[in-house]
């Protein structure tokens, strides 16, 4: 084999190796771009589906293939949206538990970075205000009828902190006049005790349980428009069976719960459920 042929073979081999290298590099680059795009698309889909933890993981994985300022911004956005979502979920939980002030505080933390959650939060803030105002007005009137003005003032203060309500201003006038001149006990309290303890130690029916709470509400509160007192369900606490009575008010297009009352099926004794402490408080 002469020198000329050897040189040709060397050239051919070099060219072949070069071509193979170019093809391999192209395949690797294509695979890298394909993987990057796949991660990016999946991350964005998770972002749209409120799966922020998954989105953040995928964005960070994509960063290994390509350093990009846009991805960094997407990670920051996902972190903010995650906090936004958490505030919204906490608010919904508080709203369900009728902890309206806590719900309002958390709804206010939801920013317009997410238009849908922000819009829902603003709507729910108004719903919470309506429910809180309705509930506290009833409780305020109940406390006033019992001459318990310290509690009455607390309920009114809670309302004025969130809403400039005309009915609250009307409640404040008689409260301010009477707060120094009335004892904490009154004939209303005695009357209430008589109503609640009537027929005690005797088994009661659902209707009788409902009537007992209706009489209690009537004796302790001024007339409230659209107030409903209805049997809701049976419940058992500490081995005792109760009829559960739901007291609520219809406000615009929704209902505002004023309280849950428990009537012992065996002796007719009545209690009010303290939601915060999860315990029954006897009505006396």
Brief account:
With 284 residues, this protein is an alpha+beta fold. It is 62% helix and 15% strand.
Which structural class do the helices and strands define?
alpha+beta
- Low-pLDDT regions: 178-186
The radius of gyration computed from the alpha-carbon positions, rounded to a whole number of angstroms, is 34 Å
Strand order of the largest sheet: 1-2-3-4-5
- Average predicted confidence as pLDDT: 74
Question: Cα distance, first to last residue?
Answer: 118 Å
Quote the CATH topology of one domain: Nuclear Transport Factor 2, Chain: A
The helix tally amounts to: 9
Proportion of strand residues: 15-25%
CATH architecture of one domain: Roll
Corresponding CATH superfamily of one domain: type vi secretion system effector-immunity co pseudomonas protegens
Instruction: Give the CATH level 1 class of one domain.
Output: Alpha Beta
Largest sheet: 5 strands, antiparallel
Tell me the total number of β-strands: 5
What fraction, in percent, of the residue positions are helical?
55-70%
Please trace the helix and strand order, writing H or E for each element.
HHHHHHHHHEEEEE
* Subunit organisation of the chains: single chain
**Basic shape:** elongated
Keywords: Coiled coil, Membrane, Transmembrane, Transmembrane helix
Protein name: Tetratricopeptide repeat protein
């Amino acid at each position: 084999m002469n020198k000329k042929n050897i040189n040709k073979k060397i050239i051919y081999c070099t060219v072949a190796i070069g071509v193979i290298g170019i093809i391999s590099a192209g395949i690797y680059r294509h695979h890298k771009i394909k993987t990057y795009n796949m991660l990016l698309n999946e991350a964005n889909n998770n972002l749209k589906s409120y799966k922020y933890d998954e989105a953040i993981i995928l964005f960070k994985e994509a960063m290994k293939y390509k350093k990009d300022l846009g991805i960094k911004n997407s990670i920051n956005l996902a972190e903010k949206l995650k906090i936004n979502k958490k505030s919204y979920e906490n608010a919904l939980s508080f709203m369900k538990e009728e902890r309206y002030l806590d719900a309002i505080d958390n709804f206010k933390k939801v920013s317009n970075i997410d238009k849908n959650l922000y819009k829902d939060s603003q709507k729910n803030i108004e719903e919470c205000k309506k429910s809180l105002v309705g509930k506290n007005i009833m409780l305020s009137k109940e406390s006033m009828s019992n001459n318990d003005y310290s509690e009455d003032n607390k309920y009114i203060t809670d309302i004025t902190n969130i809403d400039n309500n005309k009915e609250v201003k009307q409640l404040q006038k008689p409260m301010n006049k009477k707060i120094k001149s009335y004892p904490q006990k009154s004939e209303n309290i005695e009357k209430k005790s008589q109503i609640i303890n009537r027929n005690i130690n005797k088994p009661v029916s659902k209707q009788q349980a409902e009537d007992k709470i209706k009489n209690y509400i009537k004796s302790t509160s001024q007339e409230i428009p659209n107030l409903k007192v209805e049997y809701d369900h049976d419940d058992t606490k500490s081995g005792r069976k109760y009829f559960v009575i739901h007291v609520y008010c219809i406000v615009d297009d929704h209902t505002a719960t004023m309280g849950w009352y428990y009537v012992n099926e065996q002796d007719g004794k009545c209690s009010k459920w303290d939601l915060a402490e999860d315990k029954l408080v006897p009505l006396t």
